Amino acid sequence: MFEAFQIPEVFPLGIILFDILFLLVAIPIEAYILNIRLNFDKKSSTFYAVCINFFSSAIGWFICFQIEPFLPDSWRLELINFVFFNRLSSSGEVLGSVVVFASVAFFFTFLMKLVLLKFLIFSLREEITLTLKTQLPPIARYSRRNSRKKILNTNLVLTVLIANALSYSAILVLLFIIFPQS
C-alpha cells in the first residue's frame, strides 16, 4: 500500500524547519495585533492568524515552485543552494535580487493575507450580519452599515499591514541572529 510513498534522498529539512520557526514567530504576533486592533477575542484572532499564515505560506511555496523553472540558471542555482543548504553567495547581483524579492514578497504577502482575512471574516461572520439586519430599522441599517463598512475596511487594511510588518520585522531580526555577518 505504501510502496509508492518514498522519502526523497535529498530532503530540504532545513528550510522546512525555518518555515515552521517563522510561522511560530509570525502567528502570535499577528494574533495579538488582530486581537488588539480589531477587538476579536483571543480564540478568533489566533484562528485567523493561523489560517492566513498557513494559507499564505502554502500559496507562496506553490508560486515559488511554479516560477523556479523560468528563472535564469544563476538564480535557480542560488535558490536551490538556499533551499537545501541555507546558504547564499555573497555576489552583489544575487544580494540585490534578494532585497528586491523580499520587498515584493512582503507586499504580495500583505495583499494575500488581506484577501484571505476578508474572505474568512465574510464567510465565518455571516450569521452576525443576519442578526444585525433584524435588529435595526431599515434606514438606520443602511446608513450605519455603509459608514461602519468603510471604517472597518480601512481598519482591516491598516491592521493587516501592521501585523505583517511586525511579523516580518521579527523574522528579519531572527535571521540576523541565526546568520550573523562575518
**Mean pLDDT over the residues:** 78
Give Rg in angstroms.
21 Å
Biggest β-sheet description: none
Structural class: mainly alpha
- How large is the share of residues in beta strands? under 5%
Specify the number of helices. Answer: 6
- What shape does the CA trace take? globular
The total number of structural domains is 1
What is the CA-CA span between the terminal residues? Answer: 50 Å
* Low-pLDDT residue spans: 126-136
Order of helices and strands: HHHHHH
Q: Give the strand tally.
A: 0
Helix content: over 70%
Keywords: Membrane, Transmembrane, Transmembrane helix
Protein name: Filament integrity protein fraC
Organism: Mastigocoleus testarum BC008
Transmembrane segments: 12-34, 46-68, 94-116, 151-179
Provide a brief overview of the structure.
It comes from Mastigocoleus testarum BC008. This protein is an all-alpha fold.
